[in-house]
# Entry
Amino acid sequence: MRYIAKMNVIECSFLTSAMQRALLLLSLIFIISNCSQPQKNKVGGIAISFDDRFVKEWTALRPIFQKYNAKFTFYITQPDSLSQDEVQLLHKLRKDGHEVGCHGAMHVRSMNYIWENSLQEYMENEIFKALRTMKKQGFVPKTFAHPGGSQTWYSDRELLKYFGLLRDVSMKHRNIFGFEYTRQVEDISEIYCQRNASQKVNALLIDTSAKLTIEDIKEGLQRAVKEGSVMMMFGHKPLTKTTHKPDEYGFDVAFLEQILVESAKLNLRTFTMQECASMQ
Ligand SMILES: [Zn+2]
# Structure
């Protein structure tokens, strides 16, 4: 870029001052527009969050988290039902550098709840109640994950007064009114946290029900590398082949580890959701 600017200055010496100014302005525009393109020094990453209340099961994965120096976000729902032990475990995770976020006091789908009640009741019963309980437990959540991926623009507007980032849900395969709709992971733009983008983001479901392969993930990670963005994913309960019961919803621990291996190969670091929020 310095070379281009220099060239223009030399050429300008043969021209009138007005033309010189015009050329310098054009050079500047060129340099600025060039700077807005993805740059090699932008560090891309992944941000994985885990939802609900599987505190003991998440804590059991600490050796994996430490092995990959990975920082995650744990979105807690119904915090008033956590035992003292679980609260202590969450503090331990936070001390390790993970984030503890809010996932509602009741875990209701906001759209339905507001329709049947009111926005004020939703804020009081789902949000403020959760924040009060979590504050007593020693947590001050900065980001929020929508239960059931349900949101409305007017509840989001209210939520953004209390949280720096709202996380919704994305899936590779989706069934909309009976039609199966599939996208390539790298084409799901809303799961990439970009600099100076929206405070409303989505994360890709990595639970076994999402039927993702490691090839899907690898393809998605390539986009994060290319544009220096952060690819967001989320899951629920950690499952292993031996412990997985048919009625359980969650992600395969081996799959999570594969994601971490592939990210490390590409030098993608892990981000908490709060760190994603601070990119905005
Ligand atoms: Zn949930």
Summary: The first strand starts at residue 45 and ends at 52. Residues 51-52, 77, 103, 107, 147 surround zinc ion (CB under 6 Å). Confidence is low (pLDDT under 50) at residues 1-15, 26-41.
